[in-house]
Amino acid sequence: MPSSTSAKSAKAVRAAGKVSPSRKKDGGKVPMGKGPLKKRQIPWLVIGAAVVIVALIGALAFSLVPKYRDKAELEKYTPTAQKKDPSDQIPGVTKKEYPAGLHVSGTQRVAYDQTPPFGGPHDQAWANCMGIVYSKPIRVENAVHSLEHGAVWITYNPDKVDAAGIDTLKQKVVGKGYTLMSPFPGLQSAVSLQSWGHQLKLDSADDKRINQFITALRENSYGVYPEVGASCSNPTFDAENPLPYDPTPPGPNAVPMDGKGLQQDQTELSGGGMPGGVPGMPDIPGVPSIPGVPTQPAEGQ
Description:
Helices cover about 30% and strands about 10% of the residues. The strands form 2 sheets. A 6-stranded mixed β-sheet has the order 1-8-7-5-6-4. A two-stranded parallel sheet has the order 2-3. The protein starts with a helix and ends in a 32-residue tail after the last helix.
């Protein structure tokens, strides 16, 4: 009997040993390396933020790098005491010498030798050139006086420049002093730029030489234009309804380019306006003898 009891006990122990692993699996600790692995979470928010930052940096670089490159390129056309007329480096620029300070009245016309003109006798009133975009063609005798004050006059043929091209040109004028812009019907080229004694005709409003010309000649005080320091503001020259451009031939009574019969204004020959850029008193309307005030043609003229 004892031997039988011992045998049963041994069987019970072995049976208990076989059952114990399953109990450990259900309620006990799972041996290391035997359980399921936890899934690692991907930090999508961090990755998304990094992508946005990289995109912003790329956008800024795309936007700013060309501007810095263009600015560096234009440095070559910035006038200095050693390089007084950088327009000499711009292909296509025409240069001529013109006498200054020769004024005509509001009823007179000048037999200009260039179209558009860029020097010579001109009206005693200048076209407002404080970043003004004229929607209508303006009287050339007034525009030439603006050039004498150091302005750059951008003209374009409305039949050759589309709306996008006009907007491109406007961006070079609006808000920038000593510039003005107007349509010029019949212009042979699409675009023509004028400063005193300088002209550049171009086939496109996107031509990079436009910025070069403006940089080199707008308010270039190194003897490039006669009236250094003269004002470009003239509120009496109506930007909405300017004195109109006359496309007809000037006729036999036009003032010749040498200004024969005119007397030079000595105040303009001596360097232009008073300190602060106020030549004469351009803000008093109705007094034709004061420089800067447009002389309105009489009735019927």
